Amino acid sequence: MNQYVKFMNRDDVIRIISDSYPLDIVSFDQEFPNEAYCIRLNQENKWEVYYSERGNKNDLKEFSSESEACTDLLKRMKKST
After folding, report:
1. E strand or H helix that includes residue 68
2. Which tens digit of pLDDT belongs to each residue from 44-63?
3. Neighbours of 43 (CB within 10 A)
4. pLDDT-based confidence at 6, cuts 50/70/90?
5. How far is CA 64 from the centre of its chain?
6. How far apart are the C-alpha atoms of 48 and 45, rounded to whole Å?
7. Phi/psi zone of residue 45: left (φ > 0), alpha (ψ -120 to 50 degrees), beta?
8. Which residues contact 64 (CB under 8 A, 6 or more apart)?
9. Is 30 within 8 Å of 15 (Cβ atoms)?
10. Is the pLDDT at 14 greater than 70, yes or no?
11. Lateral strand order in the sheet of 36-41
């Protein structure tokens, strides 16, 4: 196993998706954008990842680190294409 683990942040996500997806498919700060993947830090200092549609947080998951949340977000986006 590789001992050098790359930690991701939101800037990395933007860089990775910018060639393949419109950037408005991901929201980093809004809680309920319409029809977008969301990644945000909630009031409990947990990272949330979900798909927002019609004011609902679909498939909500919480993570303790930004890197874990970014990894999950990219997996979801890849799976949906």
Report:
1. helix 66-80
2. 999 999 999 999 999 999 99
3. 5
4. confident
5. 13
6. 9
7. left
8. 46, 47
9. no
10. yes
11. 26-27, 36-41, 47-53, 56-63
Residues 6+ apart with CB under 8 A from 79: none
Per-position DSSP letters for 24-38, written without gaps between them: GGEESS-SS-SSEEE
Beta-bridge mates of residue 53: 56
In this structure, are strands 47-53 and 56-63 parallel, antiparallel, or unpaired?
antiparallel
- 33: its two tokens: 């954008």
Global pTM value: 0.86
Instruction: Count Cα atoms within 13 angstroms, Cβ side, for 2.
Output: 3
Residue 28 has pLDDT above 60, yes or no: yes
- HSE-CB at 56 with a 13 A cutoff on CA atoms is 4
Report the phi/psi class of residue 76: left, alpha or beta, with left for phi > 0 and alpha for psi in -120 to 50. alpha
